[in-house]
Amino acid sequence: MGTMKKITYAKAISEAIDEEMEIDKNVILMGEDVGIKGGNFGQAVGLYEKYGDWRVKDTPISENSFVGLCLGAALTGLRPIVEIMYSDFLTLAMDQIANQAAKIRYMSGGQAKVPLTICTTIGMGRSTAAQHSQSLQAIVAHIPGLKVVMPSSAGEAKGLLKTAIRDDNPVVFFEHRMEFNKEYEVPEGEFTIPFGKANVVREGKDVTIVATSSQVFNAMKASDELERENIHVEIIDPRTIVPLDKLTIIQSVKKTGRLIIIDEGYERCGVPAEIAMSLQKEIFYYLDSPIERITTANVPIPFSPVLEYEIMPDEKKIFKKVIKLLKG
Amino acid sequence: MKSTKDCNLSKSQISKMYQGMIKIRYFENKIVELYSSGKMPGIAHLYIGEEAVAVGVCANLTSRDFITSTHRGHGHVIAQGADLKKMMAEILGKKSGYCKGKGGSMHIIDMKKGILGANGIVAAGIPIATGAGYSSKFRGTDQVAVAFFGDAASNHGNFHESLNMAAAWKLPVIYVCENNLYGISVDIRKVTNTKNIANRACAYNIPGYVVDGNDVLNVYEVTKKAVERARNKMGPTLIECKTYRWKGHHLGDPGIIYRPEEERKAWMDKCPIKIFRERLLKDKVFTQDEIILFEKEVKEIIEEALDFAINSPFPGKEEAYEDVFMS
Fold first, then answer.
1. In the prediction, which pLDDT does A1 show?
2. Per-residue pLDDT averaged across B146-152, rounded?
3. Can A63 be counted among the known catalytic residues?
């Protein structure tokens, strides 16, 4: 690594967009409040002033149609980034995402190219209740034809977003709402992070934890505590759910013999279920205990902090799960 | 019907329009045969009776322009110059089809000709065409985009959301509503309190026109104004073409129980091809012999397309896994 600088996650995202807009004049940003407000979470600050109204476009509240508009633009020479404020709102645009953008390449027998990045946000922790807190990556990952990115830190977000923008396929990029204002060390200058290459965040021999998005940080906090119990956790950030780097996880589990998967989506039919099932055959005989998962309970996200914290993953739940797994 | 003398069209343009209309009709008659004899997988939604709309609109476009189509899309893509061989092969699920057998009738796409896709979801093509218009304006070209859709789609949010954005941003898009009165079996008059869908244009402060959709010259003339407006960066237009589908919603639906017999007969008497042919003869644009020759030639083209499709191989099973992502 070269020189590092300290910036927020929001700034890292705006830098990624800014750099890609500098490189490619066909990159545009569109969505609710991306203009003068600079994005609902500050992730587009300064772009409207720099690139103007046609490249950084505030939209009306018309999610399905402005995603469709960006798809039409992507098919005809532009490289749009479209912002959906909360992943809860993806459901409003699901026809254009799941039936149109995801399918047009395949349906056209490979004729269509769809360089479209859909940025959205996930995450609990701010008492925003059932319609502004969901982590709906599993719904998106279920649909063939969409790539799914879940960055953890600011540097990860920057490098992965640049790759997403350059990708000629539709990519859904899940930012974590609790991260936007946090500061991280990010490499200076130009860099990208490839899709389908997991990051081994921390090496350990006793248990493998695969954690998506900001759950990486919960896993790190828990593993700091577990070190005191002489338990050494290996933490893997898969970075992208589609494509998934199975090999890195398999190799880790072969070493540790145990696997816990953490993701902030709902438990039922979630990303951890898919990861576990897709690896199961290859790791079965290496496992010393059943595969475990820590997710959000199968209930709508409640408002009151007491209730919200009850149902979401956190470092204490991770700590307890590991202790139970290793010490019974 | 309008006289050909009122339109500033050359003889070759008129001949192209007439041939375009019979091409659609004969192509679809062939599809009916294929379906009835069990040679075609799946279903298709027929455009028979509405040919004047696609041909009248597309006669104003070049292959650099864009269109989005619907589940009832054969007419639009033929009018915009799609290759009949590749279409027929696609409809039969062959590897040599437009989509290598992965799309079928509802998903004919020709990216090289700006045909951004027929579409299985009602109203879904409307925002996509709007985006093509955004892209044209952004890139500073004079390309226009046409969204074809039916009366039922005009009650979908995509219609209102897209017209709103196109109007606000003065996008070069022409919204062509083919009002054939029925969304599958539901009579538009039973679910909509707007007599003319074109009236909805005033809500977005853009021009809206009601057109006799069985009069190809009328469609042509009105679309011409809309295309000029779009190319001159004045913004979008809504055109409502009143027309009728002769067949059911799709092959296999007789389309009878929900439509009065007299209504169907009245519209079939107003066959867009018949009235155009009569006009051409009356205006002495073509002789009867010339018309017969056109019909013979088009029938031959359809037979060639069918031969090509029938003699083409099916895709290999392994191809089911290809084209999901661009590598």
1. 57
2. 98
3. yes
What is the tens place of the pLDDT at every residue in A232-245? Answer: 999 999 999 999 99
Q: CATH 3.40.50.970 occupies which residues in chain A? A: 4-187
Q: What is the pTM of this model?
A: 0.97
Task: Determine whether the interchain pair B128/A112 forms a contact, defined as Cβ–Cβ distance below 8 Å.
Answer: no
How many residues are present in chain A? Answer: 328
Which residue range is the domain that position B293 belongs to? 10-98+110-307
For residue A145, how many C-alpha atoms fall within 13 Å in the half-sphere facing its CB? 23
Q: Identify all chain B residues contacting A169, using CB atoms and an 8 Å cutoff.
A: 325-326
Class for the domain spanning A4-187: alpha beta
The 10s digit of each residue's pLDDT in A113-156 is: 999 999 999 999 999 999 999 999 999 999 999 999 999 999 99
B320, part of any domain: no
Q: Do B98 and A111 touch (CB under 8 A)?
A: yes
The three state secondary structure string of A234-298 is EEEECCEEECCCHHHHHHHHHHHCCEEEEEEEECCCCHHHHHHHHHHHHHHHHCCCCCEEEEECC
* B319: closest chain A residue by CA: A109
Tens digits of residue pLDDT in A282-320:
999 999 999 999 999 999 999 999 999 999 999 999 999
Chain B residues touching residue A110 (CB < 8 angstroms): 100, 322-323, 326
Name the residue with tokens 């985009």. B145
Q: Is residue B274 a part of any domain in this protein?
A: yes
B132 part of contact set with chain A, CB < 8 Å? yes
Choose among A62, A69, A109: nearest Cβ to B98.
Answer: A109
Tally of domains within chain B: 1
Which of A108, A143, A148, A169 to probe by mutation at the B interface, max B CB count within 10 Å?
A: A108
Out of A15, A19, A20, A63, pick the active-site residue: A63
Cα torsion angle, A168, A63, A59, B159, sign: positive
| CATH-assigned architecture of domain A199-327 | 3-Layer(aba) Sandwich (3.40)
Instruction: Find where tokens 């389309």 sit.
Output: B255
- The whole-number pLDDT of residue B161 equals 98
**Distances A326 to A3, A205, A232, B175, B186 between C-alpha atoms, Å:** 40, 12, 11, 64, 63
Question: Considering only CB atoms, which chain A residues are within 8 Å of B138?
Answer: 28, 54, 73, 78
Tally C-beta pairs within 8 A across A and B. Answer: 149
